[in-house]
Amino acid sequence: MIRASIDDMLSGKESRYALVIGVAKRARAIAQNFEDEGIITDEKPVLLAIDEFKSHKFNIIEPDTDE
After folding, report:
1. Torsion over CA of 25, 47, 52 and 64, rounded to 10 degrees?
2. pTM of the predicted protein model
3. For residue range 51-65, what is the model confidence (pLDDT) as tens digits?
4. DSSP line for the chain
5. What is the largest CA-CA distance in the chain?
6. At what angle do helices 45-54 and 16-37 cross, to 10 degrees?
7. CA 36, 30, 46 angle in degrees (round to 5)?
């Protein structure tokens, strides 16, 4: 099992909840893309999504709550 550090994926102000939601949405998009293109793979969409967030291909953007 791949263990990614949450601190490595968070770049400061993002919450863990936002990270979980972002990874879940990205994993669903990856799974849908695989289904649409007929790709069969042993790789799990969640692990692919975690790797993308860990390598900062995607970032979480949260609204400012200072207002």
Report:
1. 40
2. 0.74
3. 998 888 988 877 776
4. -----HHHH--SS--HHHHHHHHHHHHHHHHHHHHHHT---SS-HHHHHHHHHHTTSS---------
5. 47
6. 130
7. 140
CA distance 36 to 9: 28
CA distance 49 to 29: 9
Q: Measured on CA atoms in the order 20, 24, 29, 30, is the torsion positive or negative?
A: positive
Q: Which two tokens stand for residue 30?
A: 């990856």
Is residue 46 within 8 A of residue 27, CB to CB? The reply is: yes
Residue with tokens 């609204």: 63
